[in-house]
Amino acid sequence: MRQVKTSIDIACSPGEVWRVLMDFPAYAEWNPTIQQIDGVAMPGHRLRLILTLPNGRTRTVRFRVAKVDVRRELRLRTSAMLPGLLRREHVFRLISRGAMGCTFYQEEEVSGLFSIFAGESAFTALRQRFEAMNTALKARCEGTEPPMLLLPHHDHDAPAIEGNETAA
Description:
The protein is an alpha+beta fold. The chain contains four helices and eight strands. Pfam families: Polyketide_cyc2. This is Polyketide cyclase/dehydrase.
């Protein structure tokens, strides 16, 4: 099992950050890594994410909503067709810091047989994508949006950790 964990402090309430996270139609306006999300964030429902990769291509990933705790947590899961080959769990979590705002955590756990084939560079690239989204989310919520951040180009886009996807 491999994990990528990132966090960022945001000077807004968890409710304000949650509103931005759940506004799927607006993702293309601010999110440098997730171009689009289709679906409803309700347990058991499926979400289709269109990711923007560092090389400019897009990739479609499908997740099932595992948990929704409004203003606190959105947990998504995906797995390969055959059990044990590849499983991903992606979590967006908000922890209140009172008058200071909140901390946004973005985490992904990758497990299964195929996960051992993903090199360290794949997880480094994943961390960079999470950090780019975290920074853009903070800017969007705090009203200090910078121009869209461009991610560094990597030749290894880690298809082993992307799971249930199609290249566009």
